[in-house]
Amino acid sequence: MNYYNHRQFVSVIIPVFNDNEHLQICLEALQRQTYPQELSEIIVIDNGSTQDVESVVNQFAQVKLTYESQPGSYAARNKGISLAKGEIIAFTDADCIPGENWLENGVEKLLNTPNCGLVAGEIKLFFKNPQRLTAVELFEKIELNFFQREKLQKYHFGMTANLFTFKHVIEQVGDFDSTLKSGGDHEWGERVYQAGFQQVYAENAYVFHPARHSFSQLRKRISRLVGGSFDRMMNNNPSLVDIMVDLLGTFKPPLRSLYRAWTNENLRTISEKIKFIRVMFFARYIVIIEKIRLYLGADTQRG
To answer: At a CB cut-off of 8 Å and minimum separation 6, what does 274 contact?
Structure first.
């Protein structure tokens, strides 16, 4: 297929929850896309923000605003899908900054890949001060980076911070699991893979994503990730043995993690190693607390 003769209408879907500052930057970046504006729409889904999202969206003629009351970004994305006019659906997040060729390159990869179910684009972390990373930024860079290519190759999914697909693929495999507050992209990507579609990586269709830089931000992310993993496990009706294995894994001493941290070549100095290990123990503490909270019947957090 000659991509340039077969450009299709694209719907860009962006959920947002109390993040007007980043949403403004994201929408400004989408205004600068090389892909023709007349062949795209942007759908922002307010997922229960207390901020005035409309005041941001109204600055951009190409952007449509809708609302989803069910908490969770996957419920919000499903709302966006239901309103999308495009045969091509592109997902990104309110705190991402798409490169100028993001749509152009992502759509081209999708259209030029036979039987394509999804395209996962690169997600590039950036930092407040690249010369002086905080301890949390250092931990994110090494331990919680997005590793989009690896996720696609090993686990058959791409993160919705940067994902392209066709509407007919969604119609065949179904929407995202709206009960999940994290990990819904993993669960959906597995369905795409099991349906026999191709899944490909596009390094040149990239977005920039800010690294978490504070302990409070990291706590929210880890709580959300733990909650998503917990919900996926519970949705599969685990046995008592499965639950015990999960709990034992949670409380297992982190000896292997300590060794990996101390021998990691990306941690070049003793100071960096100590910084990293300090955050690693903080992260494990949050995982343990969140697991206990969930097993006692609390709801998962949206982060």
So the answer is: none
Total-model pTM = 0.91
DSSP assignment of 255-272 equals HHHHHHHHH-TT--SHHH
Is residue 1 pLDDT above 50, yes or no?
no
What pLDDT, in 10s, does the model give residues 100-123? 999 999 999 999 999 999 999 999
**Euclidean distance between CA atoms 202 and 163, whole angstroms:** 10
How distant, in Å, are the alpha carbons of 4, 77, 184, 214 from that of 161?
A: 25, 11, 12, 21
Q: Which of 116, 101, 100 is nearest to 167 (CA)?
A: 116
* Cβ neighbours, 10 Å, residue 256: 9
- Name the E strands within the chain: 10-16, 40-46, 63-67, 88-92, 97-98, 116-126, 162-166, 198-210
CA angle, 161 then 203 then 116, to 5°: 75
Structure tokens that stand for 34 in this block? 């090389």
SS3 for 282?
helix
Positive/negative CA dihedral, 55, 60, 62, 63? negative
Q: What is the pLDDT of residues 151-197, one digit of tens each?
A: 999 999 999 999 999 999 999 999 999 999 899 999 999 999 999 99
The side-by-side arrangement of strands in the sheet containing 63-67 is 63-67, 40-46, 10-16, 88-92, 162-166, 116-126, 198-210, 97-98
Contact 40, 11 (CB under 8 A): yes
Length in residues, the chain = 303
